[in-house]
Amino acid sequence: MDTLATSLTSDAKASPHQDATDHGVAEEHNDVRMFGLATFLVADGMTFAGFFAAYLTFRAVNPLPSGSNYELELVLPTINTALLIISSLTFHRAGRALLTSRIHDCRLWLGVSAALGIAFLVGQMVEYFHLPFGLTENLFASTFYALTGFHGLHVTLGVICILVVLFQVGPNGKVSAIKPFGLEAAELYWHFVDGIWVVLYGLLYLL
Amino acid sequence: MTIASPQDLAVPQPPSGQLQPQGWLRYFSFSLDHKVIGLQYIVTSFLFYLIGGALAGVIRTELVSPMSDFVSRETYNEVLTLHGTIMIFLWIVPVVNGGFGNYLIPFYVGARDMAFPRLNAVAFWMIPPAGLLLIASHFITGSAQSGWTAYPPLSLTTPAMAQVVWIISVLLLGGSSIFGAINFIATVMKMRRPGLKLMQLPMYCWAMLGTSILAVLSTPVLAGTLLLLSFDIVAHTGFFNPTLGGNVVVYQHLFWFYSHPAVYIMVLPAFGLVSEILPVHARKPLFGYSTMVYSIMAIVFLGLIVWAHHMFTSGTPPWMRLFFTIATAFIAVPTGIKFFNWLATLWGGKIALNSAMLFACAFIVNFVFGGITGVALAQVPFDIHVHDTYFVVGHFHYIVYGGTVFVIFSAIYHWYPKFTGKMLDETLGKIHFALTFIGFNLCFAPQHWLGLNGMPRRVAEYDPMFTTLNQLSSVGALLMALSTLPFLINVIRSFSHGAVAGDNPWNALTPEWLTTSPPPVENWKGEAPLVAHPYGYGQLPSAGLPVDQATGQDVWTGS
């Protein structure tokens, strides 16, 4: 966008009010967008905070009837947690690679991150199918599926974002060392989704 | 991102501004201009206000007599649900946030547009479909019957389809509100003209910043809650269903975690607007600028921790009652600071009693009354007595109608010259004001007495001992309905026949007046002005001039 912006500058000087179609978009700088995304993630985090609060209140106030089925197994979710944490690290490597213009490395690390994300989703599917309770079994079951499902939706969206960025990265692509917004935004979002998972894992599985 | 490629620039082209519809057509387009979007919000939500008002008319007509004879009980439930939902989510929240916010904030920060114009347009265009969905549901499935709060188990037992449509509609409107809030925060924090300090911003910017923080923090919680509620309805989970082991009080906590801040989302922008209007028409600087800022931020913080005062009768434990009573009493302090600052702004001012000022002053009166009943309601013993009675209805309407809607009208009289370049007619404006003020107080003041004597809210029938006061209240509602007519005639007729306003009919100092009326596409022909003293009345030579503000004949002579 920087090269385009410079070529537009002379035009803009000649008639500053011509760019009504791209009205104001030229002022949408990257740091403003990252700020906007961060604000959105605060909002998104509040949705999870509401769910967590509901879950903890249910736990404290509404004990399940005795004999209820709410046992979770720990191995698969723990592996899943590790996968997500590793994927945050690989995504970080991708970002570093982009800033130093190592496009090939960047694509590689993005691919690894996406693969880890997909592995996480597959793992969660496997867990869902092997759990002894369904959505409406009891209050814990409903809360469990709602929370992990809502988070899984976020992971799915994150994987799609990574794949889109993967195809956009290139020396002259939409995402490159001089305009890294797409990758940085996806990375911030991915770290956010991972962070939420760590809290969720602690609350649902360990607590 | 559709920036023209360099080759395109080489070819002679018509001014690219024409690619977006110009003239009146742009108000029906996906325009990215914050001024167009602002007016889209204002006009759209005003149309919904008319619908919500008609529904209020149905309610008040039904309540003329103790028996439910005008509409059936189910219809009455639908009408009161739609009335509440439309008025809150489609009228007040969009108009004071999206409407005036989008129009004014870029001017106030010295920007040519909002931080994210495209997101801005998306946020607006979520509103008409959501509103139409909500209203159309009435004709397709019958509309929701559980009130604007949608408390389970009521919302689980009333017709399911209608409730689901209601949830979808509110989710869309909530999304729109969040997107708008992100835009306002980014614009105020990141788009300020170089050299413009935070503490030099007009007060409305602070109000919108505070409001947007509340919207970002609390609206998502409502969204999550409604998702869970829709699971309960559609998938028969038991989050809020006691028969399946769920907990209805959790819904109430989550709901009020949004819906108490929502009161501030509705009233804080009104505080900001009135802080803009009073200094101009009193020709005095806004009293206590920094205390205003701090009290807004205090309201934001306290507004997030008072929600359970809506739930004193929901089996709330004593410690919680104590905490929320104290927190709620505390919130009266920053609100009181703002109230006295407005009075001090008026004190000794050269007050022009035009329509804008009349509505703004009436706001102060109404809001104080509603605020005092609010503090009373925060006291547990009193609240238990009047909970779910018409006292609460009266209190709420004093805040939201007497507070916010009066400010909306005041703001329309104040900024209409900027929107259109034409003045509104003062005679019609004063008729509008008189009818609204008398009608409003006649409608809602008796409801306090009704509530104190035990008339429950949300019920189509009542004890015959309440008949006279209910009829009085309905007469007030009729006056309010009639008051819309001079207003509508005024805004439509003045658009073509109004006196020419000029750029700055009020000799105001805030930046939106330092450009043409209506302003050009990118707000200023030249560079954005740096307004370091938006309330410098009495400090600049122009402010001492005699000003006939009602006709706007004076010419701007300021620097």
CATH architecture level-2 label of chain B: Up-down Bundle
Q: In sequence order, what are the helices and strands of chain B, one letter per element? A: HHHHHHHHHHHHHHHH
Spatial gap, N to C terminus of chain A: 48 Å
The pLDDT mean of chain B sits at 90
DSSP summary: helix tally of chain A: 6
Assign the CATH class of the largest domain in chain A. Answer: Mainly Alpha
CATH topology of chain B: Cytochrome C Oxidase, Chain A
Which stretches of chain A are low in confidence, meaning pLDDT under 50 for 5 or more residues running? 1-27
Number of strands of chain B: 0
Fold-level CATH name of the largest domain in chain A? Four Helix Bundle (Hemerythrin (Met), subunit A)
Kindly estimate the percentage of residues of chain A that lie in beta strands according to DSSP.
under 5%
Low-confidence stretches of chain B: 1-18, 543-559
Fourth CATH level, the homologous superfamily of the largest domain in chain A: Cytochrome c oxidase, subunit III, four-helix bundle
Radius of gyration of chain A: 21 Å
Explain how this protein is built:
Chain A is mostly helical. Chain A is built from six helices and no strands. Chain B has 559 residues and is mainly alpha-helical. Chain B has one domain: Cytochrome C Oxidase, Chain A (Up-down Bundle). Chain B is 64% helix and 0% strand. Chain B has 16 helices and no strands. Chain B has helices at 6-10, 34-62, 73-109, 117-125, 127-140, 154-157, 160-190, 203-234, 248-282, 289-303, 318-346, 355-377, 380-386, 390-420, 426-452, 467-497. In chain B, helix 3 (73-109) runs parallel beside helix 7 (160-190). The longest helix of chain B has 37 residues, at 73-109. Chains A and B meet through helix 1, helix 2 and helix 5 of A and helix 4, helix 7, helix 8 and helix 9 of B.
